[in-house]
Amino acid sequence: MPKKKLQKSFEDDTSILPGGILFSILVRLPVKALFRFQSVSMSWKTIIFDKNFRKAHRNQSRALGREKLLLRQRFSCDFVFRDPESAQLVMMDEKQLFPTNSLVVGSCDGLVLLKNVRAYKVFALWNPSTREYRIIECPYVSKKNLQVLVVCVMILRLTITRLY
Amino acid sequence: MVKLKSNDDKEFEVEEAAVIQSEMIKNMIEDGCATSVIPLPNIDSKTLIKVIEYLNKHINMGKAAETGEEDDLKEFDEQFVNMGWEELFDVIMAANYLNIHELMELCCQSAADRLKNKSVRAVREMLKITNDLTEEEEQEIINDAPWAFEGPEIDDTVN
């Protein structure tokens, strides 16, 4: 539940909704809406930015079994993000991505691990929902594929919680 | 039977098995505080009727899984949340006050579904929110994630 800082922002709210209820509604919104609704008011921004809110949101998305399909177009190599529940396709703008010449190594918990094909030690952990990524340099990667994969899975597990 | 009284002084009789889906009332009954009428000063009769309708339908939720009535219940839930915005908030507030977890989930999800494709302007108007961000702060949020403000699904209407 919301902590002190959040409590304050709830009290400041001029809306018809009490803060605790607003929290329960916002936590059920998709990521795109949350990015947009940060600009509704100061208290919405404070709630959505809060670490506890993000944690609650992740748990909620998991509980709802909210799944997305990440596809890659065969020739252009652009990523396409798809919600299986709606017909809508979301194209990823190249500028928002890790270098396009990358390989998908694996994914876990909504995060995708990409590997730069030109620089074998450079990886990126990418969250397609928020379109954020973090570059990770891994000095110990062997060129052998199997070992790369093992290390990748370990990196994934370790970094998942930090990115949220 | 348990008697509930709304804030406009109307009394409703509800089966105990139905009403104990409310954690609050369940605790009152267990503590022996529900001997006569339970007054609900935060809930009007119109909202209370909706809540009781829900409680009565969900009374045998455990059984529904066995008898294959789950689809029926799902259909009921879909119909149930098909109400006006203000009415939905009244039910959410009542569910929150009475601590009826499933009803709270159902109604908050419905509210979220109605909001998810709305524009920022529409949300402010629907929820009567005053924008207290400066123009610079607002622009900064837009610049951080311009993709979140674009798309054919974004709906600027208020309803």
TrEMBL record, chain A:
Cited SMART domains: FBOX
InterPro entries xrefs: F-box-like_dom_sf, F-box_dom, SCF_F-box_component
Residue ranges annotated for the F-box domain, each copy included: 11-56
Protein name: F-box domain-containing protein
TrEMBL record, chain B:
Pathway the protein contributes to: Protein modification; protein ubiquitination
Domain of life, source organism: Eukaryota
Gene3D superfamilies (UniProt xref): Potassium Channel Kv1.1, Chain A (3.30.710.10)
Matching SMART domains: Skp1 (SM00512)
Gene Ontology molecular function terms on file: cullin family protein binding
SKP1 component dimerisation domain segment(s): 102-148
Keyword Iron assigned: no
Residue ranges annotated for the SKP1 component POZ domain, each copy included: 1-59
Alphabetic keyword roster: Ubl conjugation pathway
GO cellular component terms attached to this protein's record: cytoplasm; nucleus
GO biological-process terms attached to the record: jasmonic acid mediated signaling pathway; protein ubiquitination; SCF-dependent proteasomal ubiquitin-dependent protein catabolic process
Function according to Swiss-Prot or TrEMBL: Involved in ubiquitination and subsequent proteasomal degradation of target proteins. Together with CUL1, RBX1 and a F-box protein, it forms a SCF E3 ubiquitin ligase complex. The functional specificity of this complex depends on the type of F-box protein. In the SCF complex, it serves as an adapter that links the F-box protein to CUL1.
Subunit details: Part of a SCF (SKP1-cullin-F-box) protein ligase complex.
Protein family per UniProt: Belongs to the SKP1 family.
Protein name: SKP1-like protein
Origin species: Capsicum annuum
